[in-house]
Amino acid sequence: MTKIQFADRADRKTVETGDAFAPKFDDQGLIPVVTTCATTGRVLMQAWMNAEAIERTIETGEAHYFSRSRQELWHKGATSGEFQLVKEFRTDCDQDALWLVVEQKGGKCCHVGHPSCFYRSITVNIPVSDTEPPKLNTDD
Amino acid sequence: MTKIQFADRADRKTVETGDAFAPKFDDQGLIPVVTTCATTGRVLMQAWMNAEAIERTIETGEAHYFSRSRQELWHKGATSGEFQLVKEFRTDCDQDALWLVVEQKGGKCCHVGHPSCFYRSITVNIPVSDTEPPKLNTDD
Fold first, then answer.
1. What cofactor(s) does the depicted protein rely on (chains A, B) (predicted)?
2. Residue B140 in this model has a pLDDT that exceeds 80
3. What pTM value is reported for the model?
4. What is the predicted ipTM?
């Protein structure tokens, strides 16, 4: 049961330039969130929040998400100890995305064991092949 | 008409740790992408790509997205001149999100006139109100 109240989204200008939080949720009740590291500036992960995750993040200052695979509130670090302490919590112009800047406890955000989930890159400025997928380079 | 080929997603371990690009698209054929500034490290915007946008981004080295509001390929900067030159293009462990590091031409990513779309913050570590929405602070 959440108590958080959000502003109305009826007026586009107010949403884009006003001072009231009016997030846009998709038809699953979710909004995408990108999480970056306060120390390195790197993107650590991309995840999703519902209203409850937003409420818990604001009230505790620790990152909470909604796990789509488990369909439940996900307090990051609750099982691993790798909590994320929120340094900044931001929304974008049309309020359909969120950005968390965090201190990542333990230093490894990714369950595969890397500091960032985004540990592989794709080469650009090359023709794509019609027979082979682009190759990923591990370079973290 | 796209020619890009993606790898199969049947094997979770290969998706999470392998070297073949196997992006996961949602039921609209889209994948979320976060774009950060190569100079400041800030998150500039959050958007979406389809297969064609990925192909055009790889081949040209300039950010292409899929506009959900216009339902068409969106070459960022094509009308404004504010192109995004791709410095890094990354995917995450389960390959359901992308990260672009760009040089933002013109310096203003956001259509409202700010350098970043995320120009407003939400205060954390406070109780949420059950009558008023959280207040946004403009601080870019």
1. Zn(2+); Mg(2+)
2. no
3. 0.95
4. 0.94
